[in-house]
Amino acid sequence: MPRRYLPNSDPSRIKALQKAVNMEGYKENGQLVLSYQTTREARLLLNKFRNTQSQYQQYRNQFIKINKGYKEEAHVARMYVSHFIQVLNMAIRRGELKKDIKEGYGLSPDKYTVPLLKTEASIEKWGKLVIAGEEKRISKGGVPIYNPNIAKVKVHWSIFADHYYNVSRLKANAEKYRRELVQMRPIVDDLLHDLSNQVKNFYADLPLQQSIDKCSQFGLIFYLSSNEKKQIEAEKLQNTLDF
After folding, report:
1. What is the pLDDT of residues 55-113, one digit of tens each?
2. How far is CA 183 from the centre of its chain?
3. Is this model's pTM higher than 0.90 or not?
4. How many whole angstroms separate alpha carbon 141 and alpha carbon 94?
5. Burial of 148 by CB count in 10 Å (0-12 exposed, 13-18 middle, 19+ buried)?
6. What whole-number distance in Å separates Cα of residue 11 and Cα of residue 154?
7. Is the terminal CB of the chain with fewer CB neighbours within 10 Å at N or C?
8. How far apart are alpha carbons 82 and 115 in whole angstroms?
């Protein structure tokens, strides 16, 4: 028999499993081509694999849809949080505020560098800290920091934060189903290999073209070498002569 094509993408795996399930109970000369155990395993695996792939694609598509605008929101929030901390540090250096107040913002009194805000998690963390710190200081009679004031920082940070929690959830769910797919693919491939062997062996004694046609009913696809193509042509010629 020619070399088989085995599915290498999730949609093609699902299609191949579905083809096998559709042929459940199919017989030739009173004999099952695929065992009931194999088709039962294919049905169970098809349902689980298809559902997992669908869930992964759903969460991934939602993440892609929301991510473009979200990246811009993160950029703006990072800029405002960073700028606020810089202005706070300058006010302390000028002697307008005491350095000890920085502890209320989660900042070290003796460091004047802005915390790294490279990740979205760090923007979420430091935005929350500086907003809470500034609001608490103002509530105790402290003079507000301006340019930017905390209200403007809070507006841009809140827009980002609302989407941050949603995006984090989408990413986590997509990753969960992606890992499940990675674990399931070898199992699916092993089953597809097994059922294709059963079908191929069942029709192995037939003429090559007839065997290929029979196997194709179960979704098997073959690569034909030049010699195999010649063999099929010879079979056709022989059939014509016999007729």
Report:
1. 999 999 999 888 888 999 999 999 999 999 999 999 999 999 999 999 999 999 999 99
2. 13
3. no
4. 20
5. middle
6. 45
7. C
8. 8
How distant, in Å, are the alpha carbons of 18, 87, 188, 189 from that of 40? 12, 67, 13, 16
Q: Could you tell me the two tokens for 4?
A: 């088989």
**CA nearest neighbour of 208 among 231, 239, 175:** 231
> Tokens representing 188?
């699916």
- How many other C-beta atoms can be found within 10 angstroms of the C-beta atom of residue 225? 11
Query: Do 145 and 91 meet the contact criterion of CB atoms below 8 Å apart?
Result: yes
Q: For residue 83, what are its two tokens?
A: 């700028």
C-alpha 229/C-alpha 212 separation (Å) is: 12
CA dihedral 76, 79, 80, 86 (to 10 degrees): 180
Checking 128-133 for CB contacts under 8 A at 24+ apart, the result is 128/157, 128/161, 129/105, 130/81, 130/84, 130/85, 130/88, 130/105, 130/106, 131/157, 133/104, 133/105, 133/106
Question: What is the residue type of 195?
Answer: L
pLDDT at position 235 is 64
